[in-house]
Specification:
Largest sheet: none
Helix content: 55-70%
Family: Belongs to the CPA3 antiporters (TC 2.A.63) subunit C family.
CATH topology of one domain: Helix Hairpins
Order of helices and strands: HHHH
Main location: membrane
GO cellular component, one term: plasma membrane
Oligomer: single chain
InterPro entries: CPA3_antiporter_subunitC, NUOK/Mnh_C1-like
Number of strands: 0
Number of helices: 4
CATH class of one domain: Mainly Alpha
Subcellular location: Cell membrane
Structural class: mainly alpha
Mean pLDDT: 83
Low-confidence stretches: none
Strand content: under 5%
Radius of gyration: 22 Å
Length: about 130
């Protein structure tokens, strides 16, 4: 089985851009990164599903060899619905955060900064 090289390059570019955007501090960029990463996984599942063929629902006289695999398409459809729900949730969180702080950036937690500043072997009570 040979995979389409253009689709594999597209998957790599979408994954790289998605991971880069997920690591940003702004919630809107994180959301875009999550959507790009999800699309990369969907294209990967479609590529791994094999070449296209006849419809999987056919009569009893249709040969099984030329049929396409419907599982990959069903998984992608499910992933699209899950990504849409997660995107709506993140948009609601971003809107709530913007109304409270008037910024889109995620701030550092003071407790996390304290833990990051602590050296190894240092007693926390000192």
């Amino acid at each position: 089985m040979s995979a389409n090289l253009i689709l594999l390059i597209l998957i790599g570019v979408l994954t790289a851009c998605g991971v880069y955007l997920i690591l940003e501090r702004a919630v809107s960029k994180m959301l875009l990164g999550m959507i790009l990463f999800s699309n990369a996984v969907n294209v990967l599942i479609l590529t791994v599903g094999g070449p296209s063929g006849h419809s999987p629902i056919g009569g009893p006289d249709q040969p099984v060899d030329g049929m396409s695999d419907p599982l990959a398409q069903a998984m992608i459809l499910t992933a699209i619905v899950i990504t849409m729900g997660l995107s709506a949730f993140v948009l609601a969180l971003a809107y709530r955060s913007y109304t409270l702080t008037t910024t889109d950036d995620v701030q550092n937690d003071p407790g996390d900064e304290e833990v990051a500043a602590r050296r190894d072997g240092e007693d926390p009570e000192d």
